Amino acid sequence: MRAVIFDMDGVIVNSEAQWKSLEAAYFRELAPSWTTAHDERAVGLGVEDLHRFLVKEFDIELSKRDFLDHCDLTARKVYEQNVDCAEGFLDLARELKHKGVATAIASSSPAHWIKMVVDRFALTPLLDTIVSADDVGGQTKPLPDIYLEAASRLKIPTVECLAIEDSSIGVLAAKRAGMKIAAYRNGTNDAQDLSIADFELGGFSGLSVEKLAAHLRR
Prior knowledge:
The chain is built from 9 helices and 6 strands, in the order E-H-H-H-H-H-E-H-E-H-E-H-E-E-H. The chain is an alpha/beta fold. It has 2 domains: about 5-15 and about 85-215, HAD superfamily/HAD-like (Rossmann fold, 3-Layer(aba) Sandwich), CATH 3.40.50; about 15-80.
């Protein structure tokens, strides 16, 4: 395990629950037949993929520009005001850096959304690289491109990287990239099928580099 690559939403910060709460009325206004099952299918999608999903699934007229502008406004509330950093994440990230394990964020979110989180929680010194949807031409999860780009930047083979993911889409992307995967259970993603991950984590509190490595040896 030479690198640990973190998804952002639902892993580093509790944003998935925040997005669901803030966007519930908006989605039901756009698509009255929207259900909690659609909530689960949307988890992990990049914002442009979510727009395509809405248009295709519900046959609605919704310009991408209007949708992205709406989401940008919501993102400011989510990332600059509402989210908390996952308990224990900062301690784990510091230990990983101290012990020479590379760290990265690999997220389907736009770069300017990720920057809000990185700036708010002062994550820059703890990360070796950040890969967003913008860095791979929108080829977001479940495609492996974001994870492949992160490994390439770190100059570490994917088989020596551990991805930490909270969504079925993200787990599939990391698997396709050839990485080991820790499924992260955050208390709101029980409906996500993470069964192809190598092991599960229930949180970062008390988690150490040695404990992560022990999981991989099992």
